[in-house]
């Protein structure tokens, strides 16, 4: 109809609002006006740490101090004296030599089982005469060694066997000489003559038990089979308590000890 305005159905559509896109930088690009509007990022990160845990990053000064310490230690090692190096080499050589010797000694001990001889007094008799007194002693010796023997040599007379009473020698004689094999037990006798008449008389008159000491010093060679090794010195000492010194002397107690010295 003429004279009337256009109806709502015949009106053109309204323009759409300008579209906006967010670029990769987080800004909004308006397509209509071309303006760039900054927008802050709404992302928030929350890190939870247990209360009993402490996290700490060492400061960089520690690394510098460690490098300085290692540098000083290396300098000190380079400045070591030649004497220290010589002693170090000597110690290494000594250890290298000592270990085989120790192993060889251990093997030798296991195979040979060296043991000192064991002495025991079987009989002690005294004979008195107007001129002198004579003491006859019968002893037993046992060698417990498994493979080692003892060749007891004849002495030169400067090391006699002695019988002492109250610290004074009352008789002396010559120690025996024989070969004592491994695991062997042997009997031997000695004759000791009085060194002084007064001491012998006091022993003869004594009705109580007396304490005597028998001492022997003998040269001895160690033997393993048919091989005779170096010469050593064997010292034997026996503390004896005897009563009624005479033909029927009673040995009440004794203790004998033997030592073998290079």
Short description:
This is Late embryogenesis abundant protein LEA-2 subgroup domain-containing protein. It contains 3 helices and 13 strands, in the order E-E-E-H-H-E-E-E-E-E-E-E-H-E-E-E.
Description:
This is Late embryogenesis abundant protein LEA-2 subgroup domain-containing protein. The structure is a single chain. The protein is an alpha+beta fold. It has 2 domains: 65-112; 118-261, Immunoglobulin-like. 23% of the residues lie in helices and 40% in strands. Strand 11 (210-224) and strand 12 (227-243) form a beta hairpin. The longest helix is centred in the middle third of the chain and has 31 residues, at 82-112. The radius of gyration is 54 Å and the shape is elongated. Residues 1-6, 17-22 and 24-37 have low confidence and may be disordered.
Taking the alpha carbons of the first and last residues, their distance comes to: 153 Å
Overall strand count = 13
Structurally, the number of domains stands at: 2
CATH architecture of the largest domain: Sandwich
Structural class: alpha+beta
Radius of gyration: 54 Å
Q: How confident is the prediction overall: mean pLDDT?
A: 77
CATH class of the largest domain: Mainly Beta
Low-confidence stretches: 1-6, 17-22, 24-37
* Proportion in helices: 10-25%
Main beta sheet strand tally, sense and closure:
10 strands, antiparallel
> What are the secondary-structure elements, in order, as H or E?
EEEHHEEEEEEEHEEE
Number of helices, where a helix is a run of at least 4 consecutive DSSP H or I residues: 3
Q: What is the beta-strand fraction?
A: 35-45%
In CATH terms, what is the fold-level topology of the largest domain? Immunoglobulin-like
Inertia-based shape: elongated
Organism: Platanthera guangdongensis
Biased composition (Low complexity): 1-11
Subcellular location: Membrane
Region (Disordered): 1-35
